[in-house]
């Protein structure tokens, strides 16, 4: 298999992290979602919900982190799986109706992933916590923004079926 940068996207609590963890257990190089890291670092500075309090700053930090992930993945000798990508930042900004600079669009055009797997909303596994504040209804709306944003940047999304993590893993491997 040729080296690829593969992206897993989907709304909150659609099973991305569980799938990334499984891919890692199977020996693949995987990069985790970085928004939790950004949120937790902000909390250490006394900002409870950076995304809610300063969505543009949060998005700029995410954009920087996701560009760094892409560049690091590009240096790897083998296929890399990444939990969420650069266009996710634009999708979320569009979801909340916030404005952003052209650098967000430019980054989406410059950094291209080889394949994008979409995990659809899945109510049976949906959970929220202190970092994931969205309701299931909002998760479904975010899903639509993700589909529209990635399609706008020319990606053909491969929808992963709602099956066990082992079967989701095999589906992805079969579609590489």
What does this entry look like structurally?
Helix 1 packs across helix 8, helix 5 runs antiparallel to helix 6 and helix 5 (86-96) packs across helix 7. The protein is globular and about 40 Å long. The protein has helices at 16-25, 35-44, 50-53, 55-75, 86-96, 102-110, 136-152, 165-174; strands at residues 5-10, 29-31, 80-83, 115-119, 157-159. The chain has 176 residues and is α/β, with parallel strands linked by helices. Helix 7 links the parallel strand 4 (115-119) and strand 5 (157-159). A five-stranded parallel sheet has the order 2-3-1-4-5, with helices on both faces. The mean pLDDT is 90. It has a single domain (5-174), classed as 3-Layer(aba) Sandwich (Rossmann fold).
Structural domain tally? 1
Radius of gyration: 15 Å
**What name goes with the CATH superfamily?**
P-loop containing nucleotide triphosphate hydrolases
Estimate the mean pLDDT confidence.
Answer: 90
Strand proportion: 5-15%
Please tell me the CATH architecture by its name. 3-Layer(aba) Sandwich
Discrete helix count: 8
Shape: globular
């Amino acid at each position: 298999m040729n080296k690829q940068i593969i992206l897993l996207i989907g709304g909150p609590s659609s099973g991305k992290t569980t799938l990334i963890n499984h891919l890692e257990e199977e020996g693949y190089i995987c990069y985790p979602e970085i928004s939790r890291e950004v949120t937790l670092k902000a909390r250490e500075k006394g900002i409870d919900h950076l995304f809610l309090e300063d969505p543009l700053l949060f998005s700029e930090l995410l954009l920087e982190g996701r560009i760094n992930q892409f560049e690091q993945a590009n240096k790897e000798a083998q296929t890399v799986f990444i939990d969420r990508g650069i266009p996710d930042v634009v999708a979320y900004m569009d979801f909340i109706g916030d404005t952003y600079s052209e650098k967000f669009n430019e980054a989406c055009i410059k950094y291209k992933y080889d394949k994008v797997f979409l995990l659809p909303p899945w109510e049976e596994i949906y959970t929220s916590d202190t970092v994931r504040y969205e309701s299931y209804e909002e998760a479904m709306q975010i899903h639509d923004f993700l589909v529209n944003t990635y399609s706008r940047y020319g990606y053909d999304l491969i929808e992963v079926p709602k099956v066990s993590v082992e079967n989701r893993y095999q589906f992805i491997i079969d579609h590489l």
